[in-house]
Amino acid sequence: MSQERKKARQLDNEAVADGRPLDWFEELYSQVAGDESGIPWADMRLNPNLATWLEDRRGSVTRQSALVVGCGLGDDAEELASLGWDVTAFDISPTCIDWCHRRFPDSSVNYLAADLFDAPPEWQRTFDFVFESYTLQVLPPDLRSSAIQLIANFVSSGGRLLVISRGRDATDDPGQMPWPLLREELDGFRNCGLNVVRFENYIENEEPPVRRFRVDYQRRI
Ligand SMILES: C[S@@+](CC[C@H](N)C(=O)[O-])C[C@H]1O[C@@H](n2cnc3c(N)ncnc32)[C@H](O)[C@@H]1O
After folding, report:
1. Does the beta carbon of 138 sit less than 6 angstroms from any atom of ligand 1?
2. Residues 6+ positions from 87 with CB-CB distance below 8 Å
3. Domain layout of the chain by residue ranges
4. CA dist list (Å): 185 to 87, 117, 118
5. Which tens digit of pLDDT belongs to each residue from 201-214?
6. Are strands 155-168 and 86-91 parallel, antiparallel or unpaired?
7. By CB atoms within 10 Å of each CB, which of 61, 80, 167, 185 scores lowest?
8. Which atom in ligand 1 lies closest to the alpha carbon of residue 147?
9. pTM of the entire predicted model
10. What are the distances in angstroms from CA 127 to CA 54, 118, 151, 192?
């Protein structure tokens, strides 16, 4: 395991033990002081699982409003903005959002620091496209079902939600943070008025290989 992931797990464990399970994200971003090599999920490039999803739809998707949940250092939000979409991207860590502003000073993306669990009420049922990658899997299991409801609620009538996560079967070891999700957990989105357009379950060729779920949902009209 990388030193960065060890450090993230240590901060996560301490924060959970102290009863403040969301604090460690800001702690990590501020501790690395602008050195992205200290952030285990910061690839500083477009998520390849989003890239292939967009590539399959190129030309068929018109301009739309998009929300990126837990946007990290902004590469995915920037890609959506490059398509001409109106993009809002938020993260719980103010340091992370400052970093996005510094990386992309001329960006059209509306970056803001916000907590999913206390998001602006005007975001309810607002966005044509909501993108969530790898945030649910770093939240403690007891927060996940409410996080799923909150994310689902951002999607407008007829709008789409794309979720990308690690995946596992119920018989697999639950592992450690980032916890692979069960398909049954993601079913929570269906209980919030979203239909599954496509559920993909595949191995991503990383080192070591990672089992991924990529799920495309649409809100029922
Ligand atoms: C594993 S990272 C993934 C970042 C980015 N989505 C990516 O794919 O690279 C999870 C991100 O979610 C953010 N986050 C965690 N809890 C959050 C919350 N309650 N509200 C908003 N952002 C949150 C973290 O600060 C972190 O940047």
Report:
1. yes
2. 65, 66, 67, 68, 77, 80, 81, 108, 109, 110
3. 45-219
4. 27, 18, 22
5. 999 998 889 999 99
6. unpaired
7. 61
8. 19
9. 0.97
10. 17, 17, 11, 15
Residue type, 140: P
Distance in angstroms (rounded) separating the CA atoms of residues 120 and 126: 11
Longest dimension (CA), the chain: 49
> How far apart are alpha carbons 108 and 58 in whole angstroms?
20
Best CATH choice for the domain 45-219 from the list 3.40.50.150, 3.40.228.10, 3.40.50.1360, 1.20.1250.20: 3.40.50.150
33-42: pLDDT as tens digits: 999 999 999 9
* Six-digit token string for 118: 């206390």
Measured in Å, residue 98 CA sits from the centre of ligand 1 at 14
CA pair distance 3, 132, nearest whole angstrom: 25
